[in-house]
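Posted in: Structural Biology > Protein-Ligand Complexes

Title: Requesting predicted complex, adenosine-5'-triphosphate in pocket

I'd be grateful if someone could produce the 3D structure tokens for the following input. Sequence and ligand are given below.
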Amino acid sequence: MSRLELDSVQKTYDGQKILNDVYLHCSTGEVVGLLGRNGSGKSTLLKIIFGSLTANSRFLRIDEKVYTGSKTIRDIKYLPQDSFLIKSISVKSTIKLFLSGEYSRIVLELPIVKPLLRERVGHLSFGQRRTLEVLLLLFSESRFLLLDEPFNGLSPTSREIISQLIQERKEHKGIIITDHDYRNVISLSDRIMLMDNGNLRKIDDLDGLTSYGYLT
Ligand SMILES: Nc1ncnc2c1ncn2[C@@H]1O[C@H](COP(=O)(O)OP(=O)(O)OP(=O)(O)O)[C@@H](O)[C@H]1O
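-- Reply #1 --
Done. Output follows.
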């Protein structure tokens, strides 16, 4: 088992504190659900963990190795809200480009992917592209995944397939997931954390989400 640990994360934008001394951990074999209102700082936190955004302060450790500064780390992959795919190449080429042999073969054979293989990425619908992006991360070799709104634009069937694959792939990975489909996040997650006024609160049940004003 591997463990990612994040401590003392502070982030200020234009003098306004967005993250206030955040602590979070995630181990391989678990899904951590990150909930919070619009603008509460969820994407900011994921980008800081990934290393694409610099924090005022950040302590990041994976097992015994400590990472300083804001470099990206091979062992962490981030699904951003915006697409990261090359629009002019086919789905098949995209899968071969991003995934190594065995995982590439598995994804090429998935029933949800097979009918799309010859399509150019730029011709996919929003939901088809999002599904492909999530699959590329789930079958990557990185031990930790940060999924920022993976269910955005997905039909109920695609949501079910992706949720099932997240459950299967978490055996090898630690996954931090944020999405406004909070019911799905809750059903997938082993632990729920709520971003509230720059702090992360551990949530045990729906009453916890109500008491912090996330649900009414
Ligand atoms: N580059 C930036 N410059 C200034 N403020 C920013 C910048 N990026 C984000 N913010 C602010 O930081 C706060 C947190 O934004 P963030 O995108 O992390 O929220 P979020 O919880 O992911 O929101 P959502 O659920 O709507 O995606 C917001 O108030 C946002 O306006």
